[in-house]
Design a protein that fits this description.
By secondary structure, the chain is mainly α. The protein has 27 helices and ten strands. It has a two-stranded antiparallel ribbon with strand order 1-2. A two-stranded antiparallel sheet has the order 3-4. A two-stranded antiparallel ribbon has the order 5-6.
């Protein structure tokens, strides 16, 4: 477009606009009234701003200020003031400085579970230490033993520090490095300190292996308190750290924290320290054992290590040489240096029991086991051992949570449905309600709620009859409470189980299809009901005793056993039988059932002899068949091949496979008697009949013996 064209277009636009304005001016508009002004609201007078405090306190700040976590003057935060440079080393910073903890959990963006650098002094455990994005999702704790707990809640924050600094692993590593035998002093050994307030060690027991656990011994696992009161913050105020005593008071008679020292678990029916007091709190049981262990350590250090030891809980490194034996630190008596591996293990456990001041509540039974085993170990070398004859290491079977009955499934993480009824705390109530079981988590023994109906507390669950493995429906009509016991104490097999297995085979016909049939443990209910329950293999053409009805008031499980401690009420037996030991009770004053000429021994003795005869006869029969058998009561599957006939399980000798119907029947009956140690009292007549018939079937000479 040219400049001339642009000028013409501009001129044309101006003319059009001028014409429009002239046309508008030619019209005269009508006059209108001005609108009334809109009402307005007067502004309020300005009010002065309220005075605000200089700083708004954080939630729970006052509680935190009075807690050990906030005590800036405490040794826990001041220990490194005189160091050069004055800083908290990385291996301590995780729990002794806020910066170190934030570093460890990765809140500062660094790698999680690693403290990368030393931390500054003059810090405590603050709000930010525990409340940050990293701790909000923290659910894993790594322990010195190498154990890792996952799926935790907020207690993971607490346990990151309250887990100790050592374990059995570190003690064993030190001993291995020293390279000396148990009772040899080594200058390479030093005391290993678990550190302070290792509450998680007491609470989780053998799951984290924080104590020194002796080889061949089993230990308690997680202490299961009650639902809703199990984690750190359930019992402790997470800011003041004080015990929430009002929570404890819901069940325990306690007004102060010290009152809790008198608490004794409902399942604690044994005398742990052997002082004769089974009413004192678990705290005092532990104190009794600590005293006993310390006495053993002093005696051992004097007799074996050559230098008496002295412990001072308030002076590092805690253990000192006490050359003159005056139980005091004198001039020239420094830290203890005459360590042997055996003494080091015991001292470590003594410290573990000492430095968790709440250990009796966190997991007292684990601590008790550590102390007991340490004493027993030192006793092996003492000229005058500490008396443990009256002290108990473990609880009664229902609550002995360290035993195989409760720990068998730990590695699998679940108790299968076929075992859950009797080997988990919640199995029996579920079975009574639904008639079936499902797999469940392993538990630390039974709970009160396993037998007591929570809906009708404290009544126990009641059933009129119980189905036995034979199919029989049996029960105590006059004492329904006792029927609860029969649910589990009935065995897992019966004579019918064996009969089905051998059906169609000749008595001495070996078959690869045969496997040992195990009745399982403590089938006392089946024994008591005898032929009515048919728990043993009963031979054709023979008659067997039915239910053993003792005497009025003493015919059921709960009549003769303490329902919680499970021990036999032996004093009751004495009233009629005039013997202190029930094993000495006889059915008949003249009959010699085992044919050994002794008519004074109790029924238990008669059964013991006949049981030995059954085993010996089984061995003879299998040797004659060219396939010797061997029994080991403590090793599954109990019966093994003994190819060389040396009476021991050697390499290459596995489970027994040369079964014939005759030997299988005998083995089943033999195991049945082995696994019911009270069979002589539950129904001695029935058991004697079974043993006699088993011997006869095996071809033993029963001349002189008597079948009841």
């Amino acid at each position: 477009m040219t400049k001339k064209t642009i000028k013409l277009l501009t001129l044309l636009a101006v003319l059009v606009m001028a014409g429009a304005l002239l046309a508008g001016c030619a019209q005269t508009p009508e006059a209108t009234e001005a609108p009334a002004p809109a009402p307005t609201q007067a502004c309020p007078e300005q009010q002065p701003c309220p005075e605000l405090p200089e700083q708004v306190p954080a939630p729970f700040e006052e509680a935190w200020k009075n807690s050990p976590h906030a005590d800036a003057s405490a040794e826990a935060f001041r220990h490194w003031d005189e160091e050069d440079p004055a800083e908290v080393p990385a291996n301590c910073a995780t729990c002794h400085s806020s910066a170190g903890f934030l570093d460890f959990v990765g809140a500062d963006g660094s790698e999680m579970f690693v403290t990368d650098a030393n931390a500054p002094i003059d810090t405590v455990i603050t709000c930010e230490t525990c409340h940050n994005d990293a701790t909000a999702s923290l659910d894993t704790v790594n322990f010195p033993s190498g154990a890792v707990l996952t799926g935790l809640g907020r207690e993971a924050v607490c346990m990151t520090c309250h887990q100790g600094r050592a374990s059995k692993v570190q003690v064993d590593e030190a001993i291995t490095t020293a390279g000396v035998e148990d009772d040899v002093v080594s200058e390479d050994l030093r005391f290993i300190n678990i550190h302070y307030y290792a509450a998680a060690v007491s609470r989780f027991g053998t799951e984290v292996m924080g104590g020194y656990e002796y080889e061949g011994m089993s230990y308690d696992t997680l202490f299961e308190h009650v639902p809703g009161v199990t984690a750190c913050q359930d019992c402790h105020n997470p800011h003041s750290l004080e015990l929430q005593i009002e929570t404890c008071a819901n069940c325990h008679e306690a007004e102060t924290a010290e009152d809790l020292r008198d608490v004794r678990e409902p399942s604690s029916f044994v005398d742990y320290d052997g002082d004769g007091d089974v009413e004192e709190g678990v705290y005092y049981e532990i104190e009794g054992l600590r005293t006993m262990l310390y006495d053993a350590m002093v005696a051992y250090s004097t007799e074996v290590a050559g230098t008496p030891i002295f412990f001072d809980a308030g002076s590092y490194p805690y253990y000192f040489a006490d050359a003159n034996g005056n139980a005091a630190i004198d001039e020239g008596e420094g830290s203890y240096a005459s360590w042997t591996p055996r003494l080091l293990k015991a001292a470590y456990n003594f410290q573990t029991a000492t430095k968790d001041t709440g250990g009796y509540a966190h997991g007292g039974k684990y601590i008790i086991q550590l102390l007991h085993d340490s004493i027993a170990s030192l006793n092996e070398q003492l000229s005058s051992p500490i008396d443990l004859s009256m002290a108990a290491r473990d609880d009664a079977g229902h609550f002995a949570s360290s035993t195989e009955a409760w720990r068998h499934w730990d590695e699998d993480g679940a108790v299968p449905a076929s075992c859950a009824k009797c080997h988990s705390a919640e199995g029996l109530p579920l079975f009574i309600k639904e008639g079936v079981n499902i797999s469940t988590d392993p538990t630390s023994g039974l709970w009160c709620e396993s037998c007591h109906n929570t809906a009708e507390w404290p009544a126990v669950y009641q059933v009129e009859t119980v189905e036995f493995p034979s199919g029989a429906e049996l029960g105590f009509a006059d004492n329904l409470n006792a029927n609860l016991c029969l649910n589990c104490h009935q065995g897992r097999a019966s004579g019918a189980t064996v009969a089905r297995a051998v059906n169609g085979l000749g008595d001495d016909e070996a078959s690869d299809s045969l496997r040992f049939t195990n009745v399982h443990y403590f089938a006392a209910g089946a024994t008591l009901f005898g032929a009515d329950a048919a728990g043993v293999y009963e031979y054709e053409g023979k008659e067997y005793a039915g239910q053993f009805v003792h005497t009025n008031g003493f015919s059921t499980c709960v009549d003769c056993h303490d329902v919680h401690g499970l021990e036999v009420k032996a004093a009751t037996c004495t009233g009629c039988h005039q013997v202190d030991d029930p094993h000495m009770i006889r059915l008949n004053l003249t009959a010699d059932y085992d044919g050994d000429g002794d008519t004074a021994e109790g029924v238990a003795g008669e059964i013991e002899t006949m049981t030995e005869m059954v085993y010996n006869q089984m061995v003879e029969v299998t040797i004659a068949a060219g396939n010797p058998i061997l029994y080991d009561a403590h090793a599954y599957p109990y019966f093994f091949a003994d190819a060389n006939g040396n009476g021991a399980v050697d390499e290459g000798e596995g489970s027994y496979s040369g079964w014939t119907p005759r030997v299988l029947k005998a083995a089943y009956n033999y195991q049945y008697v082995q696994k019911d140690p009270g069979a002589f009292a539950h129904n001695g007549r029935y058991i004697l009949q079974v043993l006699f018939d088993t011997l006869e079937d095996l071809g033993a000479d029963v001349t002189g013996m008597v079948r009841p």
